Amino acid sequence: MTETGPVDTAWLREQILQALERQGFTLVVDARGRPRLLTPHDKTGLQAVHAAAREAQLRRHARFLFRFWPRARQHLADGREVIPESIEPVLEPADDGEAADLFRFFRLVYWSLPYFKGYGRRLRFLVRDAATGKLIGLLGMQSPPIDLGCRDRALGLTRPDKVETVNRSLDVYTLGALPPYNLLLGGKLVAMLAVSAEVREAYRRRYEGAVTWLQGRRLPADLLFLTTTSAYGRSSIYNRLTFRGRPVAEPLGFTARTGTFHLPDELFPHIRAFLAQHGLDPRTGFGYGPRRRLQFAVLAMRRLGLDPELIVHGIPRQVFLFR
Questions:
Q1: 1, 73, 75, 190: which could join 137 in a potential S-S bond, CB 3.0 to 4.6 Å?
Q2: Are 286 and 213 in contact (CB under 8 A)?
């Protein structure tokens, strides 16, 4: 249950529409008299769509960011320190302590997409250059979505065995390089490290013998594959990424362009309270799955007299498979 009071239908409806317009979406009225979204298609416009959510997140974390900056800056290389031929990447777990704070800090500051901690099974790494002692980039992985059409078709996954197979994979939700390594194609280097033996071994050590929460089963701790999606359309990092003549990241297609990132976090307590007023279960958290937020949005849209198609943000994301 949320901590908000009674939620007025007209107020919540207006808040959702205003939030969409603030992010750069154009609202048009369809033939049924309901608002629909028109999405910008250039990269600048697409980044602007994410800007409101990212700026709100930076404000929420402002105290941490200002406090931690003097320590964080010590981990960034000066361009004059970096000798490309001498770069020696090392993966450092970023589960707790200062490593976790460094991951959180740089992910908040240097990525244009809002930061989420991930869910389910997780691995997070700092990528450090042993030659300079400074950070090259970040790599974060989490439990993947159970249903992902282009992945399922490429691997021939069908229920009921699909669930077990997917639960032995991870989805990359943070991958990229920090300056100055980003100017040396450091993002592609981090993408190569995602399929390294070190990642597979880290997964095995963490999850060997672990019992799945939803199915109550012990799955083999062999990491079978990774998936990821680009931020904006075609990816400059993953496309044409090869190792010894073999593709590392296989393009599978594009996502369905739906989601809830364009509905601000601060609205969801009100959405849950609104649904509770109508006798619907507003609980979230572990065990409910990542689609719970999307389900809330669709249910709320219908009861607010809005078209559920407002969850179609229209931003294509290219899907990649790391076998």
A1: 190
A2: yes
Strand order in the sheet with 226-229: 89-93, 122-129, 135-142, 170-177, 226-229, 318-322, 250-254
19-28, 105-114, 231-240: segment of lowest average pLDDT: 19-28
The model's pLDDT over 115-153, given as tens digits with 9 standing for 90+, comes to: 777 678 999 999 999 999 999 999 999 999 888 888 999
38 to 42, 72, 129, 310: CA distances (angstroms): 13, 39, 43, 10
Question: Is the CB of residue 23 less than 8 Å from the CB of residue 51?
Answer: yes
The whole-model pTM stands at 0.79
And the tokens for 50? 């994410």
* Distance separating alpha carbons of residues 184 and 17, to the nearest angstrom: 42
Give me the residue label for tokens 């980003």.
182
Q: Are 268 and 296 in contact (CB under 8 A)?
A: yes
Query: What number of helices (H) and strands (E) belong to the chain?
Result: 10, 11
